[in-house]
Amino acid sequence: AEYPEAITYLLEQYDKYEAEQLRLSDIISGFIDPNETDDVAPTATHIGSELGEDDLADEDEDEDEDEDGDGDDADDDGDGGPDPEVAREKFGELRAQYEVTRLSIQKNGRAHEDTQAAIALLADVFRQFRLMPKQFDRLVNNMREMMERVRVQERIIMKLCVEQAKMPKKTFVAAFTNNECETAWFEYQKQAGKAWSPRLVEMDEEVLRSIGKLQQIEEETGLSIAQIKDINRRMSIGEAKA
Description:
The chain is an all-alpha fold. It folds into two domains: 4-131, RNA Polymerase Primary Sigma Factor; 146-220. It has helices at residues 4-18, 53-68, 84-108, 113-126, 133-164, 169-176, 184-190, 197-202, 204-221, 225-241; strands spanning 28-31, 129-131. The radius of gyration is 22 Å and the shape is elongated.
């Protein structure tokens, strides 16, 4: 629930079910009772089963075949699948709380007390969903792709500043860390009167372009670069423990 795109993706999947483009059992296997502490089945907050891209593609082909079939997909609740009425209620709760959270982020910012409370409530709803393995694999893969985009731009900035402008790596790391989307650190170093300052001036356009791309990632995800890194780190820890 910390990653807004995860909620958006799940709601889009449910919309496809409503449009009869997916079966409900392609999305979820059921729900967790929030009052049942002994229920430890994988939920929407767990790491996926690490299906490869080929596996995901194969499952997509299976879905297409199901959609083209002549009624093989019986009601999900007819063969022990998720109850459509319960699903409609749960997805409705998720959508409503997502909207409350999104509006609070827009109005108050992510760090605001009201927003944090809304995020906590959203997480409570989100973790009740038992996602099918391929669904939370996609969520994890999407987050990884976002992290890789961050790393690419960070590498470009470091290469320009350290390798080409000859800025000491320790100085660069101290200035850049937690300021990835800020330009003040770069402007300061350009005017610092150091040996690398004139070279940084020459790199101005390229560095600012990469900083702009990092800013775009923050806008797309609704997360700061630090939060993206933290979520990615916790996903890696979860995988290591799995």
